[in-house]
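#struct-help
A.M.: can someone run this one for me? Single chain, 163 residues.
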Amino acid sequence: MHCPFCRHADSRVVDSRTSDDGASIRRRRQCPACTRRFTTLETASLSVVKRSGVTEPFSREKVVNGVRKACQGRPVTEDDLALLAQRVEESVRATGIAELDAYEIGLTILGPLRELDEVAYLRFASVYQAFDSLEDFEAAINLLRAEHEQAAADESSVDRSTD
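D.P.: on it. Structure tokens below:
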């Protein structure tokens, strides 16, 4: 790490701490040449490979913008979208892979979006799961219905067992 004051090519780490969210490391450094101290913030890079082959850094804002379109007219707040983007980034980082395909990120969005708003989920899924016909929408809706019925049945059996 070059010293920002004298441009010396080396520095010594005096102190290291993880940030509040645990996603980065704050290091206090000292230059051996001029003895001045400075702080660096280190984060692990996460890259997205687009269909065209271009690689760019992961952006929560791009996740929010993509999901916002699916949520138009739905009771979803900007805070909800920000939390969804955070969950997606945490899931993607948890894979341990530094370079992910944009399509994989789209699929990672589906789970949290489904929990947030099922209509927005269907809109988004129609793009990322390449729905070609009404039957594809119907199959997705039937799957959601079956899961709702299963959840209701599970809840009902729990209620009966506690009586």
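A.M.: thanks! Residues 61 and 122 are 21 Å apart (CA to CA).
D.P.: also worth noting: The chain has a mean pLDDT of 90.
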